[in-house]
Amino acid sequence: MGRFIFFIFSFLLYCTWAGGQNVVTEFGKNRVQYHDDFKQWNMYETENFVTYWYGKGREIAHTVVQMAELDNPSIQNVLEHKMNDKIELIVYLDLTDMKQSNLGIGEQFQSQGGITKVVENKVFLYFNGDHNALRKSLREGIASVYINSMLHGNNLQEIVQNAVLLNLPDWFQEGLVSYMGEEWSPKLDSRLKDYFTSPKKQKKDFARLAKIDPQLAGHSMWNFLANYYGRASISNILYLTRINRSLENGLLYVLGIDTKELNRQWQDYYEKNLISAWR
Known about the structure:
The chain is built from twelve helices and seven strands. By secondary structure, the chain is an alpha/beta fold.
């Protein structure tokens, strides 16, 4: 049954293939190309994505575009945001190829877990043989593009202006991207347990966790917000934080509390729901 559904989905997914040379050479011009495969890039174009692949990457690129179109609605629903332009997905066969390609010369990268890289509306991915890891990386990349658009805008003037005026803590965006990449899991639960039960005498609060592990802190915070205040609070906080150019003001407008109270609520939530289960 599962194979049948997958086949139907594959059949209905509209893909257009086009071949061409130097499709992605705009990403950089000075780095040496290590093999000829990079000279021939091909493309799948679907409703929301343009996916580029090379050499023997047809099969994995087809998987990527299926995953992207499948997960895109859920990401849109949580963030309540749509892109005007299609997101570009550049698929590499392995990490070595991604490092050897000319991507990123003169570009500013955002790295999520060392796997997903995002430049504007372009998501760079490589396949390590694990489809679950690929899907997580893809979701993180798509979410990064959406979140950047929501917080910083789409044109150069907006991006520069908001980058200067909107000074957000590291946990805010790193944690939200991680949250969009995967749901709260036993593995994350274990990492948070290690933090709370550490024998070190330092205060075990959100502020300290945000300093030593902003991704885990942020992921746990967005998970708390979604469970305690509802998922709609996520997009509302993003929108009003950008409009007011302040996280503090965004929280006040959406939740009616400041960051100090939010951190206290986070502490209470995990102590009641998680720490008690650990003991």
